């Protein structure tokens, strides 16, 4: 009887270890999954109160969501706050998932609004462009990132808030047309304290990050 109990205990421990290994391997596979090109959807007619999290949950029915961006603008009534512009972008992982979303979620309802979906032409990239961008991410030159195509209404504080979630920022420079008072020139330099944090920011934001409806273009600053 004692031997029988020991056998079942061993079997239980073995199965538990195998389940943990399988779960770990699955998590690692998901982390390594790179989005295919042409996997960005333009989502129109969003409720102004709809959040990125609720959009992600809505689209997760059709596949793995790589990123969600809601276009926002400054709130004139509340300085420092942003308002949704009623549209956004959802990046899925596979083209088949995009096809599935267009079939299943076209005119679906989220937070009381009927969504309108279409492929995003402004963020569609061919294989060569994706490969080039991946090479740019891999070819890290330091801790400083050059950010282009910044909308002119964006402030230094708003850019800081976008990047500081990835680590402590050492410096952020937003060059202006006229020293001190003029409008900025549409690009910025963001420098982190560590290469690790800089790479995290680059990997997360270089694919399809929009600010006030414009897609930011990121590259490593030349030393």
Into which percentage range does the β-strand content fall? 25-35%
Query: What is the overall pLDDT average?
Result: 79
In this structure, how is the largest beta sheet organized?
4 strands, antiparallel
Task: Give the count of helical stretches.
Answer: 6
Low-confidence stretches: 1-5, 23-32, 123-132
Class from helix and strand fractions: alpha+beta
Report, as a whole number of angstroms, the end-to-end distance.
72 Å
CATH topology annotation of the largest domain: Alpha-Beta Plaits
The CATH class assignment of the largest domain is Alpha Beta
- Kindly provide the radius of gyration, computed on alpha-carbon positions and rounded to a whole number of angstroms: 22 Å
What's the arrangement of strands in the largest beta sheet? 2-3-1-6
Q: How much helicity do the residues have?
A: 25-40%
Count of all domains: 2
CATH superfamily of the largest domain: RRM (RNA recognition motif) domain
Q: Short summary of the structure?
A:
It contains 6 helices and 12 strands. Strand 10 and strand 11 form a beta hairpin. It comes from Graphocephala atropunctata.
State the main characteristics.
2 domains, 36% helix, Alpha-Beta Plaits, 223 residues, 4-stranded antiparallel beta sheet, 12 strands, disordered N terminus, 6 helices
Would you give an account of this structure?
The protein is of the alpha+beta class and 223 residues long. The chain contains six helices and twelve strands. Strand 4 and strand 5 form a beta hairpin. The longest helix has 31 residues.
């Amino acid at each position: 009887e004692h031997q029988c109990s020991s056998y079942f205990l061993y079997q239980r421990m073995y199965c538990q270890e195998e389940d943990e290994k399988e779960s770990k391997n699955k998590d690692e596979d998901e982390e390594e999954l790179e989005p295919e090109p042409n996997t960005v959807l333009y989502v129109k007619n969003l409720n102004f109160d709809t959040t990125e999290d609720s959009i992600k949950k809505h689209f997760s029915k059709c596949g793995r969501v790589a990123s969600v961006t809601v276009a926002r603008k400054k709130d004139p009534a509340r300085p420092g706050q942003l308002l949704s512009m009623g549209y956004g972008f959802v990046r899925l992982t596979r083209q088949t998932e995009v096809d599935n979303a267009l079939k299943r979620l076209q005119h679906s309802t989220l937070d009381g609004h009927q969504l309108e979906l279409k492929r995003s032409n402004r963020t569609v990239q061919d294989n060569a462009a994706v490969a080039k961008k991946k090479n740019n991410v891999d070819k890290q030159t330091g801790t400083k990132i050059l950010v282009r195509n910044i909308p002119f209404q964006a402030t230094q504080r708003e850019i800081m808030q976008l990047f500081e979630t990835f680590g402590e920022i050492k410096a952020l420079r937003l060059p202006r047309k006229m020293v001190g008072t003029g409008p900025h020139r549409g690009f910025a330099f963001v420098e982190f304290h560590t290469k690790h944090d800089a790479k995290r920011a680059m990997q997360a934001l270089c694919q399809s990050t929009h600010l006030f409806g414009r897609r930011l273009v990121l590259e490593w600053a030349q030393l």
